[in-house]
Amino acid sequence: MTIGGISAITNGEAASASAKLSSEKGKFDSLVNELRDAAKKENIGKNLSSSQVSYDGRINGDWTSGFSGSFMAESDKTALPHGAAANQANPHVQQKTIDRTSKLYEKSLEMESYVVKMMLSSMRKTVMKADGESSYAKNMYEDMLYDEYATMMTKNAGFGLADQMYLQLSQGIEA
Prior knowledge:
By secondary structure, the chain is mostly helical. The protein is built from 6 helices and 2 strands.
């Protein structure tokens, strides 16, 4: 009779978790093999060009909404800033306009979205989880959900961070 060991410390939970992980890995491996076999049968992926794989810096098939095409109206080319960028200390200074259709503004929106995502992630860490079980897949999908929240908040909340970045960066281009 052996006293001690890992099973005595974890009450058999380590063996149970290992079996669960092994089962999930087996299911995943079989799914990958099925997809590979189907791709071989249909000759998928043999003649792909890089233009088919990615579009404008995004992965082909990316389900998240981005900022490309968000602003397409003629009035968006001479829009006034929103949020904090609209506040000026000197009322005698002529307010600058923003070209919301430009690539620079699109990248500014992406940066604002990233900052909002960091804020949401910090806030999310303070929330107590009801269930003690957390999986990699659950965390991944939850992270994707918060990416989408950040994108929607950036599009709709009008924080003005992207406007400030655009004005600052375009000032360097004009000079």
